[in-house]
Structures are given as structure tokens and as C-alpha cells.
Amino acid sequence: MENNENNSLENIVDAMTTIATGIPAPIQKNFWTSVGKLCTAAVDIPVAYLEGQADLRRANTEARKLLIGNITENMSDQIEVPEVYSIKAVERFASKIIKQQINLDQIVSNAANNLAHTHISDSETVDEISEDWLNSFEEIAKLKSSDDMRLFYGKLLSNEISNPGSFSLKTINVVSQLDSAVASIFLKFCNASFYIPLENKVPIAMMPVLGDGFKDYTALGILYHEIQTLQNYGLIHSTTSGLRLSEFPDTTTTISHGKKEYYLETIELGKNPQNINPTGYFLSIAGLEIMPILDLNGNLDVLENFSEFLKSKNIKLTEKKE
User: Fold this and answer.
1) pTM > 0.85: yes or no
2) Cβ neighbours, 10 Å, residue 259
3) Shortest CA distance to 119 belongs to which of 158, 152, 156?
4) Which of 66, 153, 179, 240 has its CA 20 to 30 A from that of 39?
């Protein structure tokens, strides 16, 4: 078992350090800070590694021996029980720690892969990642063992490394409660939503409910109990609200859906649009912070539904061309 774990760790470390060479310079420091905090051979990474003085395999093996040895000695000294019990407890405890550490190592490796595809100018300045944030992230991420959740947390970490402050500690607490099922529902909701960035204001993201309430959004693939689930997890607001598009200064406001961007355009010139107030469920602050790391494809039925609503208000949703 130990050889398999060592081989798994070696593969992760090899992949991560290879990918790291392609990470943009402005975020290298944040990346290695995260590695030093979250990865197995924390005492040797990143400084010793970068200086060519670290032996990652040796560090891992010695750290594991030291961990088990210290725990065994402490337990034997403080608990008067037969030795076999303390040995068994140590094996279980060590196994738990190793599994959690493998989770963290894989998540950091996924983050490294994401960062290698991040485009940041060498002249750009990036703030330092928060130690408190990393501490909170570590406590949550180490418990995530499914491939889907490791990928999700890898995206979350890479986004925070390249743009510190993207995720508040409150959002991290919300994320800690998510499992794969809830994450899947949230992804479906975001694919059915429209995102509007607002200059100097909190952005807006809304899944429109334009027809007969319950009947309307279930027809678009979102079930009522799924709405309730997202509300319970604090990812969307508890009630529907209206969006007063008519209050925006002009019709050049960007509206994103999936991977595409649109703008509003008057259909019949000289006829001013009135009461462009679609109703829907809005993402909470936590939901808004998580949404950008998702791989969204949009929802064609929702897009057509929303476009028809706008046409009835003399407005056309026009796709932006690159």
C-alpha cells in the first residue's frame, strides 16, 4: 500500500512541478506559497526545491516516519493500554492523514494545470494570497476525494492564486457544505442564468422565470426542489425579484449566457422600450463568486425563452462578435 501511495504522490509532484514551469511569473509566488502550505513535503517546498536542494521522495518518506513515530511515542506515554491498540490507532490515524494529503496534493496539481493556461502579462501586479484564506481552504479541501470535487476545488484555488480576494471566507464556508449533487444542481442553474457585470457595482446573475412560475422553470429543466436546495445552501436568494433593465443607462450593457456575450438592441427605432422587468431567481454573493470558475455552456431553451420576452418589449438580444 505504501509503495502505491508513494508512486501516486511522485506522479502528482512530477506533474505539478513540470506544469509549474509554465505558470505566469506574476502568480508564481502565490502558487509556491500555496504549495508550501498545502502539499506533502511542506518543509522542503518551495524554497529548497527552487534552490535545487530538495529530495521530494526523501522528504515524504521521512516526514511520514516521523509523524507515525511521534504519534506512537506520545500515545504510549499518555495512555496505558496494550501496545496493539496504540499501533492500530496510529495506523488508522496515519491512513486518514495520508488520504487527506493525497486529496490536497491532487487539488494543487489540478490548480497548477489551470494556472499554466492562465494568461497574465509579466508586467501585471498580483496581490499576495492570504494565509488565513489558505488555512480555511485546507480544512475544507482535504476532505474532498471525488474527482469532480477535486477538479472544482482546483479551479477555486487557481482562481484565488491569480486573483486574491475572489472568494471571501464566507463563500469558502458555503463551499464547504457542497457535495457533488448540489454542485451539479448549481451548475445547471448557472447554465440557465444570465450574468450582467455592472461597473463599480455588484454584478447581477439571474435565472429568468417569465411565464407561469413553477410551470415555467420546470419546463426549462430546473425542478422546484432544486431551487429550494440552492436556497438552503445560500447560493441563491430566497425569493424571486424583478430586474429593471429599463433603468440601465443604454442598451450597450453586456449580458453573458454560457460562453457567449450579448447586448440589447432596439428592434423598432423611435419606439422606446418600456417596462423591461424580467422576474427570476438571483444568485447570492457566494453564488456570484463561484459562478466564474464554472465551465458554462448555457441553456438554449432559456435563451430562446428570454429572447422572446425581450422581443415583446421591442428589444433584441444580439450576440457580440469578436
Assistant:
1) no
2) 9
3) 158
4) 179
Helix 83-115 to helix 147-162 angle (10° resolution) is 60
Phi first, then psi, for residue 203 (nearest 5°) are: -65, 170
For β-strands 279-282 and 204-208, DSSP reports them as antiparallel
Q: Which of 90-94, 172-176, 222-226, 295-299 has the lowest mean pLDDT?
A: 90-94
Strand order of the sheet with strand 194-196? 241-242, 279-282, 204-208, 194-196, 254-257, 260-266, 315-319
Is residue 152 within 8 Å of 183, Cβ to Cβ? Answer: yes
Cell numbers at 214, concatenated: 413553477
What would the pLDDT profile of 5-26 be if each residue is shown by its tens digit? 555 555 555 555 556 667 888 8
Can you tell me the mean pLDDT for 203-213? 79
Q: Which of 256-260, 275-279, 304-308 is least confident?
A: 275-279
Nearest Cα residue to 11 out of 77, 92, 109? 109
